[in-house]
Amino acid sequence: MYLNCHSRYSFKYGTLSVEALVAEAKKHKLDALALTDINSVSGIFPFIREAQKNGIHPVVGTDFRI
After folding, report:
1. Residue among 66, 59, 52 nearest 36 (CA)
2. How far, in Å, are 18, 19, 46, 52, 66 from residue 49 at the CA level?
3. Where are the domains of the chain?
4. What is the pLDDT confidence band of residue 11, given thresholds at 50, 70 and 90?
5. Could you tell me if 9 and 42 are in contact, meaning their C-beta atoms sit under 8 angstroms apart?
6. Prediction pTM value
7. Which three-class secondary structure state does DSSP give residue 45?
8. pLDDT, tens digit, for every residue of 16-62?
């Protein structure tokens, strides 16, 4: 499981949509994936839906930076 994945919801830091991130995880046959966007939790619900739809266990967190 990758523990430090960022999506485009990590404003200025991430580039992938949650759909693309989950698609990459599925391509590499991961059974779990953690989304830890920087200073944002906006992508958590879309990520959970997409991960579950693709048979991947979603783990959520936040990377807070000051």
Report:
1. 59
2. 10, 10, 5, 5, 29
3. 1-66
4. confident
5. yes
6. 0.89
7. helix
8. 999 999 999 999 999 999 999 999 999 999 999 999 999 999 999 99
